[in-house]
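Collaboration report, partner site 2.

Our partner group contributed sequences for two proteins of shared interest, and the home lab folded both. The records are reproduced in the order in which they were received, starting with the first partner submission.
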Amino acid sequence: MGELNRETATGVVLSAGRTRAWVERGALHWSRGRTTVVVPGAGIRRVEAAGTSLTVFLGEDAGGGSSMTVRHRNRDMVVALGAEIEAVIGDAGPPGTRRQPQRHTVPVWPLRMLFRVRAGVLHGGPWWRRALWYTVAGLPLAVLLPVSPVLGVAAWLLLPAGLGLLFLWVKMAALDTWWVMRRRGVTVHARYAFDLTTPSDSGVSYIVHFRTLDGQEMARPISVRGHRDEITYDPRDPSRMYARTRVAWLGSALVAFTLTGMWGALFCVPAVIWLTELVSLAL
């Protein structure tokens, strides 16, 4: 039992409030806030999916016979996750091993950000190193060049935010897709792969692989990768999908697009004035 689930199989990700639950590698992952509990199949006694409620009863080794409950508005997703949990019950993993429940707690947001910045600079793409150079070398240039230091510091501080907001304004134009996914979208695990058929001068694009609730395997191109290995698709049209990013909350209303673009343009004004004065002095 659970042979299929030892792989990183595509599965349902049930998200309700601060609680997220999914099955991966023969174990149940139950996340709430900053804490994630990983319970192997051998630590699960039974699972009950009733309507919009999913309850998992744990064995003695996994928490003293306790239970975990989550409620979700989509009954099909509740039933599908319940079936995945049912499939791994009793799975003890490879022969000769005894997998114990594990609890992981991630650091608070400022520490996580520092760790990610360090990892990005050491192992990430060139944009991380460019951002580091901008941070380290940009401020001395803004202060020491023969232009108003106050204007230079303001330009140095606001230019990244302005360019970022303008970039978001362009990327967040698909409001209709976001609204459809918000109302009836289904979130499942996905596997992203680079699209090698795309010309290198046209930017990075991906092929996303995922499986729908009815077992249909899908592979579709996508230009932006989400911050999790997940995809949200429209059950009425699985080819219509949405990769959730950390800034997706800005698309809650059409007004946010206009405000983002306006603020982006305003934040770029000090840099434009500073560059104009610097060029006029050089001439």
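Second partner submission, folded after the first:
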Amino acid sequence: MDICVFLSAADLDDRYTRPAREFAKLIGKGGHTLVWGGSDVGLMKVVADGMQEAGGRLVGVSVSFLAEKSRPGADEMVIAADLAERKRLLLEKADAVVVMVGGTGTLDEATEILELKKHGHTDKPVVVLNTAGFYDGLKEQFRRMEDEGFLPRALTDLVFFAEEPVGALAYLEESLGTV
């Protein structure tokens, strides 16, 4: 399975880096491929390191204005012209999506895949890895959207919230029948 992760490139503390590395090692040991933003800094580096330590395959999609931060030694690295092309390529290369902790860029990427899914333009499973309760507020907002009629599909059809890396991977493997 090719798993796209949307996540921060910021340097973060252990409560965020430990689960990210754990998830990367789980998917690497499971024989899956990591499709990610291609950066060799911050949390993106942590995930790439974990994948390579576990023998996993790395497919990066960076963007021209961040190309100097792209990870050397990735199995594949594509440099997109802009952020829109980067998102399109990340999603094209993936069978599933996991949203990890991040800022506005991560939120933009997450809402794009959910919007595509809401309108039936993709059926890829999407997991929000809710590390340390980071996305509790987003989860509540999504529930409100559902309760008040803003979502034409059930929230559970759009996204799965996992509290731990092992739950995220189990959901993806079950969704795609790779168990």
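Feedback sent to the partner group on the second submission included the following. The chain has seven helices and seven strands. The beta strands are 2-6, 33-36, 57-63, 76-80, 96-99, 126-129, 160-162.
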